[in-house]
Amino acid sequence: MANKIALLAIAATLTVAITGCAKEEGPMEKMGKGLDEAAQSVEKSAEDAADAVKDAVNE
Length: 59
Description:
Structural class: mainly alpha
Number of helices: 2
Order of helices and strands: HH
Distance between the termini: 77 Å
Strand content: under 5%
Radius of gyration: 24 Å
Helix content: over 70%
């Protein structure tokens, strides 16, 4: 009986967790994703610039 109750509690917890993850993004999540994308763009630009400098030095 205790195993059934524990299994039911685990199933209920997982159901609530999955439901909570399925909601729409809020403004903070959207802002965070925007900041992540901006940081990746800056990193890519810096890598491209470093490669260009390295190529110019090697020529």
